[in-house]
Automatic annotation (TrEMBL), chain A:
The entry's keywords: Cytoplasm, Cytoplasmic vesicle, ER-Golgi transport, Golgi apparatus, Membrane, Protein transport, Transport
Family: Belongs to the adaptor complexes small subunit family.
DNA repair as UniProt keyword: no
Principal cellular location given in the protein's record: cytoplasm
Protein name as it appears in the record: Coatomer subunit zeta
Membrane topology, record value: Peripheral membrane protein
Highest taxon, organism lineage: Eukaryota
UniProtKB/TrEMBL annotation, chain B:
Protein name according to UniProt: Coatomer subunit gamma
Residue ranges with Basic and acidic residues bias: 1-11
UniProt subcellular location: Cytoplasm; Golgi apparatus membrane; Cytoplasmic vesicle, COPI-coated vesicle membrane
One GO CC annotation: COPI vesicle coat
Length: 203, 873
C-alpha cells in the first residue's frame, strides 16, 4: 500500500486566486509537480472551475488533496499529496487565512489584499518554507511578520510624501480620496468591505 | 503607465488590480531609485513588491536584468525599515536561481543572522541557506550550529528547516549537526520540536537502530507538538512495516495510544496508520474504525472527508469491520460535498448487502455527472469489486457502466470503465455478449487509441468463440476504414483471428484482408499480407503458431539478441530459441487500491526482473558462454529471520547449467566478512564447477556470491536435487562505530538450510491465449497420459493450486479458477522446458473422496513428457 514516507515536506503548493480564477499569489514547493508556468496555471484554472461554485472545504483533483476557503472575492488553496493528513493541510489553510484576516483588518477581499501584497508575501513566507510547515499559529505569524497595514500612515505622513513628490502620478484628488478611505476604515470598518465608489462622498 | 492605472483605479473602485498592467521594463526602470540617497523605504518597498509579484505571475527575467536589479537591491540593506529588509530577503530567495553572483549578500545576511534584531535573524538564515552551496556552507557552519540551539524559537526553527533543505545537497556537513538538533528536539516550543524531529529522522533514516532508539526516547518522554506526533506515528508505522514487527510491539502500542490523543489531527493520523498496516486483524482495526466513525459526523468537511476516505480503504480489505459505520455512512450520501458523498456510497457498496446495491446505484447515478473524474474512477472500481462479490448483479452493473461509457470523461476514467467491463466479461461467461456489444458500440466513437486497440484485441480473442461471430466483423472492419494506423493494424489482427477460427467466415475475411492490403500504412499492409498468406494455407498448426499465440519471447531480450546477431557476421540463421522467454508477471490480485492514491507518473516500460538478472550475470566473466538465461526463481530464504547472517538464494537456470545467486547480509556491526562463498553438496549427479566469492561483506550492506553447477548431461530426467549448503568466510572483527577492521581474521562457517531444485526450475511459464490451438499445434506424437489419486487434497481449488506451484507452469484460459459447486474441473497449463521445448499439460480433476487427476502431457520432445509425468508421480 501507499504508506507515507515520513517527511516534513507536507505542502505541495499554495495559491490565492481572485473570483475570475486569476492568480494573485502562488507558490509551488515540489519541483516535480507542474514544473512549467503553463501547467501551473492550467492546474489552478482546473481547481478553480471545480471549486468556486460550492464552498466545500476539500476536494480531490489530479491526484492531489486540495483544501480551500473563500472570502468575498478571494479563494485560498493549499495542496498536498493524496496520502497527506487532511487536517494538517487544514491547519495551514486556517493559519494563512487567520493571519491575513488580521493584517488586513478583517477586510479579506481582493483590493485590500493587493494593496498590502508585501504583507501577504511575508505571511506566506512565515507559514511555509519550501513545503515545510514553519508555523501554524496565526498569532506567532503576526508577531514574526510584524507588519503594519499599508493604509496605516497618518495624514501628515501621506502629505509629507506628497510634498516631497514621492507619490508620483497620483492626483491630489486620489490622494485625498485615499486619506478619506483611511478615515472611513478606522471609523466604520464595516463600510470598507463594500465596494468603494465615488458616490460615497463629496469627492 | 502608473498614472494610467491609478486613474483607472479610481474609476472602477475595488474591482481593479493595481498590479494588472505592470510592465517588467517599467518596473526595472523604477528600480533605479534604489540607488538614490537617502533611501525612501516606502517607494522601494512598493517596487520590490512589484518585482516579486511579476516573478510570481511567471514573468521571465533575463540574467542580466535580474542581476542588475539584484545588485541595486543589495543597497537597500542600508535602510533599517523592517518590512523593507524582510522584502529584501524574499527577493533574494526569489532571485537566487535567476540572478548571477547572489553570494554577494552573504556577509549582510550573516550579519543579520547573528545580529541583535530577532525579527531579522530567522528569515536571514533562510535566505542565506537558499544562496549557499556546499563549500560556503562550511564557512557558516559555526553560525548554523549556534542558530539551531538558539533560544529564540523562530531562529531555531529557521535553522532546522534550512538544514533539512540542505541535506539533499550537503549531507555530510549537515550530518555533523546532529547533536545540536538533538538538543533542539527537547525545546519547549512545539514547532522547534517538530522541525528538530524531522531533521533528526532525515539524518538517521538509513540507520534502523538509531531510528528505533530515537522513537523509544520520544514515545516515552512525550511531545507537545501535534505535528511532531504525526511525524512520530509515520516513523513508527514505517519501522513496523520494515521490521515486520508484530502488533504486540511497543511501537504498535504507541500508535494505538495516539488514538486517545486530544488533538484530532493526531487521532486521525494514528487511525490512518493502523488502517494502512498490512495484516491487521479485525480486533486491532476496531478502535481505529470507531474513531473514524465519530469523525463522520463532524461539522468540518475536511474531517468527514478524511474519515470516509480512510473507511473506504478499510472496506477494501475488511468490509465487515466497517459495517458498524453503515448508519453514519448512510447520512453522508447526501453530503453537499460530492467527494464525501461518493466515497460514502462506494464504501457502502463494499460493505452493504446485495439488496442495497440497486438503491445505492440509483443514488449515485443522480449525481455522477457532478463529480470529478478521479472520483468517477473510484465509483467504477467499487462497481468492479461489487461484480466480483455479487456476480448475479452483473446486468445492473453492465447497464450502469455502459451509460457511464457514453458520458464525457477523460482517458483514465474511460480506461477504468473498459477494464471493469473486461473483468466482468472474464468472470461471467453469461455477460460476455452484452459486454462485447457495449464495447463495440464504444469503439465506434472512441478517441483513445490505447483503448480502441485493447478492445479490438479482446474482440479478436473472445469474438470468434461466441455463437454469432459474424456480427462483430462489421464493427472491426469499420475501424479499418475510419481510424488511425495503430487502430487499423489492431483491427486487421482481430479480423485474422476470426478467419482462423471460423471456417464459414474465412472467405469473407479473406476478401476484407485483400482490401486491407491496399492500406496506406506499412504496418497495416504488412500485417494484412502476412495474415492473408497464413490463412490461405488453411493449416491449423500454422494458425495456432502465427495467429493465436504470438511470440512468447521477452521483447528487450529479442532486441538485444538481434543486435548481437547483426554484430557477428555468421552464416547461421537467427535462432529464436536463443532469445530469453518473456516472464509472465506474477499476477497480482486485482489491484483495487483506489486511484485516490495513484500517482500521475507515466508508466515506463520497465525491464522485467529477469532481464535485469540477465544483465547482472552477463557482467560476470565466469558466466559468459552459458547462453541466455532461461529462468530465475523467486528468492528462497536459507536462514531464519533475525539471525546473525541473512542469506537468500535465487536459482538461475541456463540450458546446461544452473547458477545459484546467494544474497547475503551481515547483521553484526562488529564483524567484517571476507571471501564469502556458499559451499554446496549435491545429492544427485549434479556437479559444482566453480564458486565465485563475495570479496567483502561489511555490516548491513548486502553482497552476492555465486555457485555454478553443471546439470547432468547423461540423465536428462534428473531434474530434482537437494543441496546441503554451508557458508564459509573469513571473519575480521571491527570497531562497530567506525567500521575499521582488525588486521587478522579467522576462518569460520555457518550452516544454511538445504536448497531444493525441482521440476519447476526447469520450466518457464508461457501464456498461450488460445490453448486449444496450441494443443493441436504440438500434436499427439509424444502424448502420454496417466491417472493419479491425490488422497491428501480435499478441494479442487487446493488441487489446482498445488499442481500449478509444483510444475511452475502458466494456467491458460483462466482455468486456474474453479467455478463454485462443481465437482470436476479441467486445468490447462503451458510452459517451455529448458532447451526450448514447448510443454502442455491438461489435467482433468474429479472430486470424490479426495481428488482424482488424469494428466495428459504433450511436448515436441519425448524425454520432457517423461520428466513431467515422472515428477508428478
Amino acid at each position: 500500500m501507499d504508506s507515507l514516507e515520513p517527511s516534513l515536506y507536507t505542502v505541495k503548493a499554495v495559491f490565492i486566486l481572485d473570483n475570475d480564477g486569476n492568480r494573485l499569489l502562488s507558490k509551488y514547493y515540489d519541483p516535480e509537480l507542474y514544473p512549467s508556468m503553463k501547467e501551473q496555471k492550467n492546474f489552478e484554472m482546473n481547481v478553480f472551475n471545480k471549486t468556486h461554485k460550492a464552498d466545500n472545504e476539500i476536494a480531490f483533483l489530479e491526484g492531489m488533496t486540495i483544501v480551500y476557503k473563500s472570502s468575498i472575492d478571494l479563494f485560498f488553496y493549499v495542496v498536498g499529496s493524496a496520502q497527506e493528513n487532511e487536517l494538517m493541510l487544514m491547519s495551514v489553510l486556517n493559519c494563512l487565512f487567520e493571519s491575513l484576516s488580521q493584517i488586513l483588518r478583517k477586510n479579506v477581499e481582493r483590493r485590500c489584499l493587493l494593496d498590502n501584497m508585501e504583507g501577504v508575501f511575508l505571511v506566506v513566507d512565515e507559514i511555509i518554507d519550501g513545503g515545510v510547515i514553519l508555523e501554524s499559529d496565526p498569532q506567532q505569524v503576526l508577531q514574526k511578520v510584524n507588519y503594519r497595514l499599508m493604509s496605516e500612515p497618518a495624514y501628515g505622513f501621506v502629505l509629507f510624501d506628497y510634498i516631497t513628490g514621492n507619490v508620483e502620478g497620483e492626483t491630489v484628488k486620489s490622494q485625498l480620496l485615499r486619506m478619506k478611505t483611511h478615515y472611513l476604515n478606522k471609523a466604520w470598518p464595516r463600510f470598507c468591505s463594500r465596494p468603494k465608489s465615488r458616490s460615497n462622498g463629496p469627492f | 503607465m502608473i498614472k494610467k492605472f491609478d486613474k483607472k483605479d479610481e474609476e472602477s473602485g475595488s474591482g481593479s488590480n493595481p498590479f494588472q498592467h505592470l510592465e517588467k521594463s517599467a518596473v526595472l526602470q523604477e528600480a533605479r531609485i534604489f540607488n538614490e540617497t537617502p533611501i525612501n523605504p516606502r517607494r522601494c518597498l512598493h517596487i520590490l513588491t512589484k518585482i516579486i509579484y511579476l516573478l510570481n505571475q511567471g514573468e521571465h527575467f533575463g540574467t542580466t536584468e535580474a542581476t542588475e536589479a539584484f545588485f541595486a537591491m543589495t543597497r537597500l540593506f542600508q535602510s533599517n525599515d523592517q518590512t523593507l529588509r524582510r522584502m529584501c530577503y524574499l527577493t533574494i530567495k526569489e532571485m537566487a536561481n535567476i540572478s548571477e553572483d547572489v553570494i554577494i549578500v552573504t556577509s549582510s545576511l550573516t550579519k543579520d543572522m547573528t545580529g541583535k534584531e530577532d525579527v531579522y535573524r530567522g528569515p536571514a538564515i533562510r535566505a542565506l541557506c537558499r544562496i549557499t552551496d556546499t563549500t560556503m556552507l562550511q564557512a557558516i557552519e559555526r553560525y548554523m550550529k549556534q542558530a539551531i540551539v538558539d533560544k529564540v524559537p523562530s531562529v531555531s526553527s529557521s535553522a532546522l528547516v534550512s538544514s533539512l533543505h540542505m541535506v539533499k545537497m550537503s549531507y555530510d556537513v549537515v550530518k555533523r549537526w546532529v547533536n545540536e538538533a538533538q538538543e533542539a528536539a527537547s525545546s519547549d516550543n512545539i514547532m522547534v520540536q517538530y522541525h528538530a524531529l524531522g531533521l533528526l529522522y532525515h539524518l538517521r533514516k538509513n540507520d534502523r537502530l538509531a531510528v528505533t532508539k530515537m522513537l523509544n526516547k520520544f514515545t516515552k518522554s512525550g511531545l507537545k507538538s501535534p505535528f511532531a506526533y504525526c511525524m512520530l506515528i509515520r516513523i513508527a508505522s514505517k519501522l513496523l512495516d520494515e521490521t515486520d514487527g508484530g502488533h504486540d510491539s511497543p511501537l504498535f502500542d504507541f500508535i494505538e495510544s495516539c488514538l486517545r490523543n486530544k488533538n484530532e489531527m493526531v487521532v486521525y493520523e494514528a487511525a490512518s496508520a493502523i488502517v494502512h498496516m498490512p495484516n491487521c486483524t479485525a480486533r486491532e482495526l476496531a478502535p481505529a474504525v470507531s474513531v473514524l466513525q465519530l469523525f463522520c459526523s463532524s461539522p468540518k468537511a475536511a474531517l468527514r472527508y478524511a474519515a470516509v476516505r480512510t473507511l473506504n480503504k478499510v472496506a477494501m480489505k475488511h468490509p465487515s469491520a466497517v459495517t458498524a459505520c453503515n448508519l453514519d455512512l448512510e447520512n453522508l450520501i447526501t453530503d453537499s460535498n460530492r467527494s464525501i458523498a461518493t466515497l460514502a456510497i462506494t464504501t457502502l457498496l463494499k460493505t452493504g448487502s446485495e439488496s442495497s446495491v440497486d438503491r445505492l446505484m440509483k443514488q449515485i447515478s443522480s449525481f455522477v455527472s457532478e463529480i470529478s473524474d478521479e472520483f468517477k474512477v473510484v465509483v467504477v472500481q467499487a462497481i468492479s469489486a461489487l461484480c466480483q462479490k455479487y456476480p448475479r448483479k452483473h446486468s445492473v452493473m453492465m447497464n450502469f457502466l455502459s451509460n457511464m461509457l457514453r458520458d464525457d470523461g477523460g482517458f483514465e476514467y474511460k480506461r477504468a470503465i473498459v477494464d471493469c467491463i473486461i473483468s466482468i466479461i472474464e468472470d461471467n461467461p453469461e455477460s460476455k455478449e452484452t459486454g462485447l456489444a457495449h464495447l463495440c458500440e464504444f469503439i465506434e466513437d472512441c478517441e483513445h487509441t490505447v483503448l480502441a486497440t485493447k478492445i479490438l484485441h479482446l474482440l479478436g480473442k473472445e469474438g470468434p468463440r461466441t455463437p454469432q461471430p459474424s456480427k462483430y466483423i462489421r464493427f472491426i472492419f469499420n475501424r479499418v476504414v475510419l481510424e488511425s494506423e495503430a487502430v487499423r493494424a489492431a483491427a486487421v489482427s482481430a479480423l485474422a483471428k476470426f478467419g482462423a477460427q471460423n471456417d464459414d467466415l474465412l472467405p469473407s475475411v479473406l476478401v476484407l484482408m485483400q482490401r486491407c492490403m491496399m492500406d496506406s500504412d506499412d504496418e497495416v499492409r504488412d500485417r494484412a499480407t502476412f495474415y492473408m498468406n497464413v490463412l490461405q494455407q488453411k493449416q491449423k498448426a500454422l494458425n495456432a503458431a502465427y495467429i493465436f499465440n504470438g511470440l512468447s519471447v521477452s521483447i528487450p531480450g529479442l532486441e538485444k539478441s538481434l543486435h548481437q546477431y547483426t554484430l557477428e557476421p555468421t552464416e547461421k540463421p537467427f535462432d529464436m530459441k536463443s532469445v530469453p522467454l518473456a516472464t509472465t508477471p506474477i499476477t497480482e490480485h486485482k489491484t483495487e487500491i483506489a486511484s485516490v492514491a495513484t500517482s500521475k507518473l507515466p508508466e515506463k516500460l520497465a525491464p522485467s526482473r529477469q532481464d535485469i538478472y540477465q544483465e547482472q550475470l552477463a557482467a560476470i566473466s565466469e558466466f559468459q558462454g552459458l547462453g541466455p538465461l532461461f529462468k530465475s526463481s523467486e528468492q528462497v530464504q536459507l536462514t531464519e529471520a533475525e539471525t546473525e547472517y541473512v542469506v537468500r538464494c535465487i536459482k538461475h537456470t541456463f540450458a546446461r547449467h544452473m547458477v545459484f545467486q546467494f544474497d547475503c547480509t551481515n547483521t553484526l556491526n562488529d564483524q567484517l566478512l571476507q571471501k564469502v562463498v556458499v559451499q554446496m553438496e549435491p545429492s544427485e549427479s549434479y556437479e559444482v564447477i566453480q564458486y565465485i566469492p563475495a570479496a567483502n561483506l561489511p555490516y548491513s550492506q548486502p553482497g552476492s556470491c555465486y555457485t555454478l553447477v553443471r546439470l547432468p548431461d547423461d540423465d536428462p530426467t534428473a531434474v530434482s536435487c537437494t543441496f546441503s549448503c554451508t557458508m564459509k568466510y573469513l571473519v575480521k572483527d571491527c570497531d562497530p562505530n567506525t567500521g575499521e577492521p582488525d588486521d587478522d581474521g579467522y576462518d569460520d562457517e555457518y550452516v544454511l538450510e538445504d536448497l531444493e531444485v525441482t521440476v519447476a526450475d526447469h520450466i518457464q511459464k508461457v501464456l498461450k491465449p488460445n490453448f486449444g490451438a496450441a494443443w493441436d499445434e504440438v500434436g499427439d506424437e509424444f502424448e502420454k497420459e496417466e491417472t493419479f489419486a491425490l488422497a491428501s487434497v480435499r478441494t479442487l481449488d487446493e488441487a489446482v493450486g498445488n499442481i500449478i506451484s509444483f510444475l511452475g507452469m502458466q494456467p491458460c484460459e483462466r482455468s486456474d479458477k474453479v467455478p463454485e459447486n462443481k465437482n470436476s474441473h479441467v486445468l490447462f497449463l503451458a510452459g517451455v522446458f529448458r532447451g526450448g521445448h514447448d510443454v502442455l499439460v491438461r489435467a482433468r480433476l474429479a472430486l470424490a473422496d479426495g481428488v482424482t487427476m488424469q494428466v495428459t502431457v504433450r511436448s515436441d520432445e519425448e524425454t520432457v513428457v517423461d520428466v513431467i509425468l515422472a515428477s508428478v508421480g
